[in-house]
Design a protein that fits this description.
By secondary structure, this protein is α/β, with parallel strands linked by helices. The chain is built from 19 helices and 16 strands. It has two domains: about 160 residues, Rossmann fold, CATH 3.40.50.280; about 240 residues, Aldolase class I (TIM Barrel). About 45% of the residues lie in helices and about 15% in strands.
Length: about 475
């Protein structure tokens, strides 16, 4: 069967500012699994290629795939629908997948006749079984992890058990991607995921529902094998580990670092972590193996808000982790969410002050966004607080809910995000640090971020 996997054309403010794009790792895993079964597969990453919907339509018409699969983040919902519609009109089976469609599967099938199937959660085994069934004309009602339509009725099969041994998965099909086009600050760039599953309970995140609450990690050797492939075959020099918490299992993280050094892999890399999983020994290992920055989800400077988020960390832990990371010589990106239910002007001011006190190398402020599948979304939905059902506006730049009795007005939250960015990136302390480091590229990206953000708001009529 000929299978075309598509990352649809879409815009992202973060991509525009950082001037980079990540390989669609999920599609690459699906492709490699299908190729193992003998299927003919292509991946079309419209984002990095700068391809338009017209280009996608042309590819579908010229290659005539039997099945077209699309993945998309929530803000790219409408772009994904357009690709699926064009594929269906061309006579192909259509499959939607990824974190967004996994949580709106029944809604999508009921609302859009041009979607045939939704693959939920981990899709490798589900998609393989679906393709096999379609090739042989078999019934799909026994395929776990699949949502499909029978007549006018959308049906959801039971969830598929999670993949126990992640080492059993083939390496992502990087050969189907334009690897030379993925760059970060001039260097070839790639992403990898060394684990799945998250045991934490953050109400704004759906990761534990997508990949399960039980953490599953690839072996250090398997991870290093992939890094070797990226370095020696694709000349990659910058890698981002996409794990929710790369340091969750400290011993395994150290062993991965040891493997990187033992194999002499010359890479700089980034990862995400929690402040309660960090210690001095681990940070030293990370630094020695090439880690140059850690993304910390701090979320708030108010312990009360952190508790409402069910984040499970304390302010003192944040302070300690940031101090230790500085001592290790690793840069820090601190991410904060403003406008969470229960937020007040005072808690936002406290968060902004805390961001400046922590003095990270970079900071990110986003508007609280209740994505489908999260506990937060279901809570706000039940209270009638969701203002917008247009998924394209779920971009962390646009307020989409308002709890009138206990929350700040959405327009006020948006203004505080602007103030937070200005307060941090124009502070004398930050500017002096960048001068000392000669990091002029940071200033350029900050100014570009401000311009991009304001342009978006003007176009939407928010300003």
């Amino acid at each position: 069967m000929k299978v075309l996997l598509v990352l649809p054309p879409s815009r992202s403010s973060i991509r525009e500012v950082l001037e980079t794009s990540s390989p669609p790792l999920g599609l690459a895993y699906l492709a490699s699994c299908l190729e193992e079964e003998g299927e003919e597969v292509r991946i079309m990453d419209c984002v990095v290629l700068g391809a338009s919907h017209r280009d996608v339509k042309r590819e579908i018409e010229s290659w005539s795939p039997d099945l077209v699969g699309v993945t998309a983040a929530t803000p790219a919902h409408n772009d994904a629908l357009r690709v699926l519609k064009e594929a269906k009109e061309a006579g192909a089976f259509t499959v939607a997948g990824g974190p967004h469609f996994s949580f709106i599967d029944l809604e999508a099938l009921r609302k859009y006749r041009f979607i045939d199937f939704v693959v939920r959660g981990e899709g490798e085994e589900t998609l393989k079984e679906l393709v096999r069934a379609l090739e042989r004309g078999r019934d799909v009602s026994e395929i776990r992890g699949l949502t499909y339509r029978r007549g006018e009725v959308a049906k959801r099969n039971p969830d598929r058990p999670l993949i126990e041994n992640l080492d059993s998965l083939p390496m992502p099909a990087y050969h189907l991607l334009p690897m030379g086009m993925y760059r970060f600050e001039g260097y070839r760039y790639a992403t990898t995921m060394t684990s799945r599953g998250c045991p934490f309970r953050c109400t704004f995140c759906a990761s534990s529902k997508l990949f399960g609450k039980r953490w599953r990690g690839r072996s250090p050797g398997n991870v290093a094998d992939e890094l070797e492939l990226l370095v020696y075959k694709y000349k990659v020099r910058n890698v981002e580990f996409l794990d929710d918490t790369f340091t969750l299992n400290a011993r395994r993280a150290e062993e991965i670092c040891d493997e990187i050094r033992r194999r002499g892999l010359d890479i700089s890399w980034a990862c995400s972590s929690r402040v309660d999983t960090i210690n001095r020994r681990l940070l030293s290992k990370l630094k020695a193996a090439g880690c140059y920055i850690i993304y910390y989800g701090v979320e708030s400077g108010s312990q009360r808000i952190l508790n409402l988020m069910k984040k499970g960390i304390r302010i003192a832990q944040v302070v300690k982790a940031f101090k230790e990371t500085v001592k290790a010589g690793i840069e820090r990106l601190a991410s904060f969410i403003l406008g969470f239910p229960g937020e007040t002007v005072e808690t936002i001011k406290k968060t902004i002050r805390f961001a400046r006190f922590l003095n990270p190398d970079y900071v990110q402020f986003t508007i609280c966004t209740p994505y489908p599948g999260t506990e937060l979304y279901h809570e706000l939905k039940s209270k009638g607080a969701i203002l917008v059902e247009d998924w394209s506006r779920y971009d962390t730049l646009t307020p989409v809910f308002w709890l009138r009795e206990e929350g700040m007005p959405p327009w006020e939250v948006a203004r505080w995000v602007e103030r937070a960015y200005v307060s941090f990136y124009t502070s004398p302390r930050f500017l002096i640090q960048q001068l000392r480091k000669k990091r002029f590229i940071v200033w350029r990206k900050v100014f570009k971020a401000v311009r991009t953000y304001l342009t978006r708001r003007v176009k939407r009529g928010d300003i």
